[in-house]
Amino acid sequence: MGDAPTASAAVRPLLIISLHDVAPPFEAEIRAQVGELARIGVSRFVAKIVPNWHGGNQVSAHSGFRELLTGLEGGGVQTVLHGYEHRTRGPVHGSPIRVARAQLFARGTAEFMTVSNTQARDSIARGWEEFAACGLAVPNTFCAPGWLMTDEAEDAIVESGIRYLTGMFTLHDLHRLCVWPIAAEGYMGAGGLQEGGVQMLNGLVRLSARDRFAHKIYLHPDLSGRQGWMGSIRRAASLLSQGWTAGTFADLAARGGDPPGE
Ligand SMILES: [Zn+2]
User: How far is ligand 1, taken at its centre, from the CA of residue 109, in Å?
Assistant: First the structure.
């Protein structure tokens, strides 16, 4: 991978704030996160939408939630397809490293580590139908639950015509076959020891990510209701005060130039 471009005075470095697991069961959390982002002056961010959380929560069936999403998109929020059900649908398979990551960090959620190529393509098509039923634009960007998928699921993403694929630390342009590295930190919503591990990872990212072109802060719902993601909101406010500008994956891709090749 080539060197990442560095922040310059001409181009303000981009801060991509990404809300994960945007789905009806977490409506109160999502609304609270959106409210806190508005409070720090951020209206341009990413919403990673799960079309049918755990198989019983189609976004189109919840009118209030649907209105929330269309309002966000109308205000400049980029909507991203984030799996379909966000739960495993059978045994996890794939490379040993990815299986280990799924078991450690995405237990029960790595949907695209458990689907065949055909099932993956079907899930994407059904996800798009949900977006359309909500009145949302068909998204050109995909993020797998847990940022994990098998090679055959990744083939399905390409075959479906999706252009951009987000990883935990990357944005891939599948048409131009290039990748932007993105430093990433945030709140995983994993609780306990695992969240402690994420905070350690955040510290490492902060040390190594100075002067990068793009930085991502991800938020997940806090099921305890304690809004454990508020630390990430404060971190975002701090970066904004240092000259970072809030944007989306689409903004990053639109900055053009030549992203560093793989
Ligand atoms: Zn997720």
Answer: 7
Separation of 190 CA from ligand 1 center, angstroms? 11
261 C-alpha to ligand 1 centroid (Å)? 27
What is the C-alpha R_g of the chain?
Answer: 17
220 alpha carbon – ligand 1 mean position (Å): 7
Alpha carbon of 107 to ligand 1 centroid (Å)? 11
pTM: 0.89
CA distances to 42, 54, 161, 256 from 165, in Å: 23, 22, 11, 17
Going by C-alpha positions, the residue among 163, 185, 161, 184 that lies closest to residue 172 is 163
CA 41 / ligand 1 centre spacing (Å):
25
**Mean pLDDT per 10-residue section of the chain, whose length is 262 residues:** 42 91 97 98 98 96 96 97 95 80 77 94 97 96 93 94 94 92 88 71 66 85 93 95 94 74 42
How do residues 131-166 score in pLDDT, each as one tens digit? 999 999 999 999 999 988 999 999 999 999 999 999
Question: End-to-end alpha-carbon separation of the chain, Å?
Answer: 4
| Sole residue written with tokens 């002067």 | 211
Q: Helix/strand/coil (H, E, C) string of 168-201?
A: CCEEEECCCCEEEECEEEECCCCCHHHHHHHHHH
